[in-house]
Amino acid sequence: MQYIPGLAGVPATESKISFIDGQKGLLTYRGYDIMELAEKSSFEETTLLLLFGQLPTAQELAEFDEQLRDHRRVKYNIREIMKNLPETTHPMHMLQVVVASLASFYPSTEYMKGGTENQDYINDVTVKIIAHMATLVASWEHMRNGYDPIEPRKDLTYAENFLYMVTGEEPDEDWARLLDACLILHAEHTINASTFTTMVTGSTLANPCSVISSAIASLSGPLHGGANQMVIEMLEKIGRPENARAYIEDRLAKKKVIWGMGHREYKTKDPRATILQKLSEKLLAKKSASLSVMFETALEVERVCEELLGHKGVYPNLDFYSGILYKEMGFDPKMFTSIFAVARSAGWMAHWREQLQNNKIFRPTQVYAGSASRSYTAMDSRKEGIKAVLNEHEVRDSAPDVD
Question: How far apart (Å, rounded) are the C-alpha atoms in residues 224 and 38?
Answer without folding.
Answer: 23
